[in-house]
Design brief:
Number of domains: 2
CATH superfamily of the largest domain: Immunoglobulins
Number of helices: 2
Shape: elongated
Number of strands: 11
Strand content: 35-45%
Oligomer: single chain
CATH topology of the largest domain: Immunoglobulin-like
Distance between the termini: 46 Å
Length: about 160
């Protein structure tokens, strides 16, 4: 007899689904930090934000374990391009905003808090000493009276 029943016994839908569930749990379990990642992403739910799309490249350089890599995010009228450089256990994020402007830029890292800077008039910004972890970048456009916030999808550094 195997996990699905006796030889010759008809399989029910429940038995088949239970077997598939065990198979997936064993061979492709969810990441250990899945709950923390979801909670991190949901922490922005009280803000009025626009979520940028991740423009996929041929390779996912910098997203999973690489030392450097470039990622581009877009939303309606804003493009955010970042270059990731690993420096020891930390990262440096060099970024560019199009259209250019002196916008507030913030990086959130789960369990490490936030740090912020302001892009220069050319749209360039640098965030140094960014720790490893689930990361999002927020760009604050406009002044306090009509502020718009764009957030990138999470990236695991």
């Amino acid at each position: 007899m195997n996990d699905l029943g006796a030889p010759g016994e008809a399989f029910s839908d429940e038995m088949i689904l239970a077997g598939i569930g065990r198979f997936l749990d064993e061979l492709d379990p969810p990441p250990d930090d899945l709950v923390q990642r979801v909670q991190f992403a949901l922490a922005l739910e009280d803000l009025d934000v626009e979520v940028a799309r991740w423009e996929r490249l041929d390779t996912l350089a910098g997203v999973r374990g690489g030392g450097t890599g470039t990622i581009t995010f877009t939303v309606s009228d804003l493009t955010v391009m970042i270059n990731l450089t690993k420096i020891g256990k930390l990262h440096r994020i060099d970024g560019w905003l199009v259209p250019a402007g002196q916008y507030g830029v913030e990086v959130r890292v789960a369990e490490h808090g936030t740090s912020s800077t302001t892009a220069d008039e050319g749209g360039r910004f640098v965030l140094d000493n960014v720790p490893r972890g689930t990361t999002q970048i927020l760009v604050h456009l406009g002044d306090v009276s009509c502020r718009r916030t764009v957030v990138t999808p999470t990236v695991v550094l």
